[in-house]
């Protein structure tokens, strides 16, 4: 490194605030700082700006109906169709030949669907689903990896008013069965397999195994042929090949069904405090308006862009910011099937260069991996097409932020650090890239119209700089409406009611810790419930624990998250063997297998520690914090309130030894 470079490096390291580059501001979708006041003064009517990004079949009468708090409704009386908004209207506006989806397969194959192509394929598949007996409001499960047929199936469902429930392809057979059972879903679309690091993975066998655990009849299963001859499968009687069906229905037109703004668009299962995943319900009007609005304001999406969100559609990020938001705005959205280090660690940068990508949206865990691999990989490529960078999923540490800023953005792209959740539908806390100063490590202010606060256990705002709970005390269009068929759990998991002389106030708690600065910038500190965040994926420790205690020979278990350089957090299992059971390799293997079977490889533990006892308080509660500290290699602090303090040292020694 030259002296000049070294001093530049030092300057970057110390810099705490960054202004958006002029070149970006000049072309940004949203640049008027007055938007914050405008939304506040004009709330909730300000949200018409979001609704105006859509085409409504019937205009709504009311922006917000809050007559039954906290079961808020948005844009009531309005009708629209999400697939019409993502496809037909762009074709009608002359964008028939613009690329809608650019797909990059792991082995180097590519497929481009123009808006015209995508509309045809969606109509053919919508017609297929109808033919198979799918009716409006039937939940269709999509257990698919990153292949174009996934967004096609989502939009086909939306077209006929059948909510989809996408199950991440990396989830296990059991996880599929649990979700299909919970949603009473009788229809499944899946595929034969997909590629990972060049190997063909068998997906259909996993799907079939999952189907065995479904408690009701599944009337039909559509199977996409992704692998050709790479894997041999025979289809069961109720299973049909996707291409065969779509060929039959090619050229058929299917009118988009008119959906009420509050009709369900999709269900997405996510992890919570208890072992049972939560079915988050999103609606057609509010969700679509909100994802379109945030794609416009935060991701600065423009129709002529090539925009790449490198998430998986199996999670909310892919739903909102690969599929619905970008397509509603008529842009070109990229999809990548594979891993970022196959065939080499410069794959992402090769794809950015080749496709002249304007905006890249990825996760801090990926950025930390890129850092570890080294700056020579991005340096091999021309990344000058990039205009904006984004991150999502977990807090980003300032070092990773600055690396991303320098080595990917060439110090000329703003970064949006977007805090949000499956439940919020879209971004909530982030800078607006054409307006706000950026402070690495802090997500930014709450978006215009979003009332983000940091409060104590009584719901009172804490002083700036102090840690508290993140809270949102006004509704927003993209919010979840309820947990599927479980209003009670919805109320209990997310809402607190506070009363004062004037009124009752309902406050939404995302279960994240945070602190706020004097200028309203919010730093998100991480989950405060029993959810851990592994590589940006939300996992319920209770779900994992129940897999562990299900293993023969295990008496009791505690699962916690420990710090991890790349993944952010990793899964640590502490287990007590049953009397007479040796804590041997077989038992460990049994524990790992059981976790893989009930959840999937994303929950694979970093370490399984057998111990004769778990640290417990005098009232018998397992001290999870202590176990987290052991896993993270932190100071253990005071253990004197434990019933069995001696066990802590034993466990810590074991962890260090491994
Ligand atoms: C965490 C993903 C800090 C947070 C969109 C939240 C973040 C959970 C950020 C939701 C961020 C997400 N900074 N933490 N920018 N983005 N999180 O439902 O703990 O998979 O509650 O949605 O991820 O995870 P989910």
Automatic annotation (TrEMBL):
SUPFAM superfamilies: Acetyl-CoA synthetase-like (SSF56801). GO terms for molecular function: 3-hydroxypropionyl-CoA synthetase activity; acetate-CoA ligase activity; AMP binding; ATP binding. Pfam families: ACAS_N, AMP-binding, AMP-binding_C. Residues 95-476 form the AMP-dependent synthetase/ligase domain. GO terms for biological process: acetyl-CoA biosynthetic process from acetate; carbon fixation by 3-hydroxypropionate cycle. InterPro entries: Ac_CoA_lig, ACAS_N, AMP-bd_C, AMP-bd_C_sf, AMP-binding_CS, AMP-dep_synth/lig_dom, ANL_N_sf. Keywords: ATP-binding, Ligase, Nucleotide-binding. It comes from the Archaea. Its EC number is 6.2.1.1. Residues 543-621 form the AMP-binding enzyme C-terminal domain. Residues 1-23 are annotated as: Disordered. Residues 35-86 form the Acetyl-coenzyme A synthetase N-terminal domain. Belongs to the ATP-dependent AMP-binding enzyme family. NCBIfam families: Ac_CoA_lig_AcsA, PRK00174.1. This is Acetate--CoA ligase. The lineage of its organism: Archaea, Methanobacteriati, Methanobacteriota, Stenosarchaea group, Halobacteria.
